[in-house]
Design a protein that fits this description.
The chain is mainly α. The protein is built from nine helices and no strands. The N and C termini lie far apart (about 55 Å).
């Protein structure tokens, strides 16, 4: 049960302010909350069976200490990703469509949005050091709870969620969880390995958090 609850909590956090949560909010303006959450549940269940399977397969190929150490680095990177925040591009905007089954539209939209997303990658990382089934089910339930709360609160507040505060809180948890995993897995590693890991973290942090150049700015 530990792996189930760990996966539920971490994916709940990973989904806060994520692109797929924004998709859920947009879909909830077109269709009923029940239909949206049902579509999200089954789409997540389908995507995360592959995510958990990939993580489980990778976890069986490498030493546990290395897996734990690299997973820690990955979660710290997810913390930077969370701080940066996500937004929907113009071609990803949700349009309310009629004449189609709402469930299958939500299922397909969410399935495609989740591929390669932070929550999918988080599930892979969790499954490298935890059993397959609890991670699969826990990550799915955590996703639905996170999106369900966002939809309900978003409807109450007119979609004006305190995204910055939520992102900072989620990032802090990712940083703490990642640091603990790095310590747990890399306690016996050399200073060179630690230095390499910290360089990777510094570079990815810079890439995620750097401010984009202003439009029209030259040179």
């Amino acid at each position: 049960m530990h792996a189930f609850w760990l996966s539920l909590v971490m994916i709940f956090i990973a989904e806060l302010g994520d692109k797929t949560q924004l998709v859920a909010l947009a879909l909830a303006t077109c269709y009923s909350t029940r239909v949206v959450l049902s579509g999200i549940f089954w789409a997540t269940l389908a995507v995360h069976v592959f995510s958990a399977g990939i993580g489980w397969f990778m976890g069986g190929m490498l030493p546990t200490d290395w897996i734990t150490f690299v997973a820690g680095i990955t979660f710290i990177i997810f913390g930077f990703w969370t701080l940066r925040g996500d937004s929907l591009e113009e071609d990803e905007k949700i349009e309310c469509k009629t004449g189609v089954n709402p469930f299958w539209l939500v299922f397909t939209t969410f399935f495609m949005a989740e591929l390669g997303d932070k929550t999918m990658l988080s599930t892979i990382s969790l499954a490298t050091t935890n059993p397959f089934v609890p991670v699969w089910l826990g990550s799915t339930v955590g996703m639905v709870i996170s999106d369900g709360l966002a939809v309900i609160v978003g409807k109450m507040l007119g979609k004006n969620l305190p995204e910055k505060a939520i992102g900072i809180g989620a990032a802090i948890i990712f940083f703490a969880f990642g640091a603990w995993n790095m310590y747990e897995g890399g306690a016996g590693f050399s200073m060179g390995i630690w230095a390499a890991g910290l360089v990777v973290i510094a570079i990815t942090g810079f890439l995620f958090l750097r401010k984009p150049a202003a439009a029209g700015q030259e040179g």
